């Protein structure tokens, strides 16, 4: 009986000591942003003691913006970080995301598109598309014409029904197929990341250790 009690005590001691030994990744906040900065992100200049594979973000205290730099693609504002689904929402500080997506290069970064979708860009008389499904891309439009995008409507239909001329095609990172079909390309997009789990600390959602 005494041996059994010793074994039970040893088992519970092991369980509680293991749980108690888990460390929590350090959290930081940038300005009044509601989302924390934690693994796999850290504020530039901080040196957490747990893992080494962090991605730096910067905090712009003047306008409370969190900034992520993508190598070869430059700085983006961070709108949101969802640690559970491992998605980060980014937007263009210059408010013309399309121009940034044309040269988007995700190599040398831990980020990748959720999916890609091929969108075709058209130049259309603005009076022909005002009351239809297409929303002009302001930073690429010059009155009396407007630049619109679609992944569904064919070039023949765009020419026949709206008198639009094709400009170019572009594979765009999207969260789901048809994301920009009725809204035009907004000033934000999402990426996902793929980094090893941090074994030294507790994490969010599916990365929990």
UniProtKB/TrEMBL annotation:
Signal peptide extent: 1-21
Enzyme class: transferase
Pfam families given in the database record: GUB_WAK_bind
rRNA-binding among keywords: no
Membrane topology, from the record: Single-pass membrane protein
GO cellular component: membrane
UniProt GO molecular function: polysaccharide binding; ubiquitin protein ligase activity; zinc ion binding
Record localization: Membrane
PANTHER family cross-referenced by the UniProt entry: RING-H2 FINGER PROTEIN ATL21A-RELATED, RING/U-BOX SUPERFAMILY PROTEIN
Protein name per its UniProtKB record: RING-type E3 ubiquitin transferase
Source organism of the structure: Olea europaea subsp. europaea
Lineage summary: Eukaryota, Viridiplantae, Streptophyta, Embryophyta, Tracheophyta
């Amino acid at each position: 009986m005494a041996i059994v009690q010793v074994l039970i005590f040893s088992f519970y001691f092991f369980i509680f000591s293991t749980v108690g030994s888990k460390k929590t990744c350090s959290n930081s906040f940038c300005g009044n942003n509601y989302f924390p900065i934690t693994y796999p992100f850290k504020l530039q200049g901080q040196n957490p003691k747990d893992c080494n594979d962090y991605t730096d973000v910067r905090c712009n205290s003047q306008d409370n913006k969190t900034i992520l730099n993508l190598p070869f693609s430059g700085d983006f504002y961070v709108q949101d970080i969802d640690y559970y689904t491992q998605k980060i929402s980014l937007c263009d500080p210059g408010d013309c995301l399309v121009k940034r997506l044309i040269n988007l290069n995700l190599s040398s970064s831990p980020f990748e598109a959720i999916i890609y979708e091929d969108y075709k860009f058209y130049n259309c008389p603005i009076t022909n598309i005002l009351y239809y499904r297409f929303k002009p891309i302001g930073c690429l439009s010059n009155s009396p014409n407007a630049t619109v995008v679609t992944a569904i409507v064919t070039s023949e239909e765009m020419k026949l029904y709206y008198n639009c001329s094709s400009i170019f095609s572009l594979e765009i990172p999207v969260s789901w197929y048809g994301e920009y079909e009725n809204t035009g390309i907004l000033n934000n997009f999402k990426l996902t990341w793929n980094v090893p789990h941090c074994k030294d600390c507790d994490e969010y959602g599916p990365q929990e250790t």
